[in-house]
Amino acid sequence: MQLATPDVDLPGSRTGHLFRPERVEEPLPGIVLVQEIWGVDEHIRDVAGRLAAAGYAVLAPALFSRDGVLPPPLSPERVERAKRYLDTVPPQLWAGLPDAAKRAEALAGLAERERGPVNETLAAIFPADRGPQLAGWLEQVADAVSWLRASPAVKGRRVGTLGFCVGGALAAEVAALDPALAAAVVFYGAPPAAGRIARIACPILAHYGAEDARLMQQLPSFEQAMQAAGKTLERHVYPGAPHAFFNDTRRSYRVEASREAWARTLSFLSAHLGPRP
Question: Which numeric CATH code is attached to 3-66+131-273?
Answer without folding.
Answer: 3.40.50.1820
